[in-house]
From TrEMBL:
The lineage of its organism: Bacteria, Pseudomonadati, Pseudomonadota, Alphaproteobacteria, Rhodobacterales. It comes from the Bacteria. Pfam families: TetR_N. InterPro entries: Homeodomain-like_sf, HTH-type_TetR-like_transc_reg, HTH_TetR. PANTHER family: HTH-TYPE TRANSCRIPTIONAL REGULATOR BETI, HTH-TYPE TRANSCRIPTIONAL REGULATOR RUTR. Residues 25-85 form the HTH tetR-type domain. GO terms for molecular function: DNA-binding transcription factor activity; transcription cis-regulatory region binding. It comes from Stagnihabitans tardus. Keywords: DNA-binding, Transcription, Transcription regulation. Residues 48-67 bind DNA. This is TetR family transcriptional regulator.
Length: 207
């Protein structure tokens, strides 16, 4: 199947039948896993569909049965990462027997996920982060809002001392601080140090 024909099929909504015939969603997950390695190796701009197809051990025409183009793959990667990060963060916050500082640090680390570790271990990390925001601004904004709600629920259950504002206000402050920490981190170790410092500050304020 040519690339142009694949694109026309997608536009008409006929691509779904091709996807069903190609295999289970696990195949798409495998493609996304392969794409992570390609983006880390070459950066967003230099990575091609041919690179991703090669990493996924499939032909380029087969790759187009699953994803429309490189942007589609990157958006799917971003969505998968954000969903998993939120799930992991929620679980980390509610582990029993933790202090507020411990719970927050565990949540911050869990929210980053393995993808963030990979991003910070490649020289293309800044480019990939920028590409993620540009390719999926709606997803990123939605994920920030969902993160704020998760933190708000946790703070309400735990209790917020007087003088720190409402649980929702504090949650939004934490989300903004996390974004700043992530954007300024020079390495994974630097990120972890800054996350630990943020967790300590907020944890001690919560008591």
């Amino acid at each position: 199947m040519s690339i142009d024909k694949a694109d026309r099929l997608w536009q008409k909504g006929a691509m779904q039948s091709a996807l069903d015939a190609e295999g289970p969603p696990a195949r798409q997950d495998a493609i996304l896993d392969a794409a992570i390695g390609a983006f880390a190796a070459y950066g967003y701009r230099r990575t091609t569909m041919e690179d991703i197809a090669r990493a996924a051990a499939m032909s380029r025409s087969a790759l187009y049965l699953h994803f429309r183009n490189k942007d589609d793959i990157f958006r799917s990667l971003t969505e998968r990462y954000l969903d998993q990060a939120l799930t992991d963060m929620t679980e980390a916050l509610h582990r029993p027997g933790q202090t507020a500082e411990q719970a927050l640090y565990a949540a911050f680390v869990a929210k980053d996920g393995q993808l963030m570790e990979l991003v910070l271990s490649t020289p293309h990390g800044a480019e990939l982060m920028d590409a993620g925001f540009q390719a999926s601004p709606g997803l990123v904004a939605e994920a920030s809002a969902r993160t704020g709600r998760v933190l708000t629920d946790w703070l309400v259950a735990r209790g917020v001392p007087a003088g720190l504002g409402s649980a929702e206000e504090l949650a939004q402050t934490i989300v903004a601080a996390l974004m700043g920490v992530k954007s300024s981190a020079r390495s994974l170790d630097d990120l972890r140090v800054k996350e630990a410092h943020l967790a300590r500050l907020i944890g001690r304020a919560l008591g």
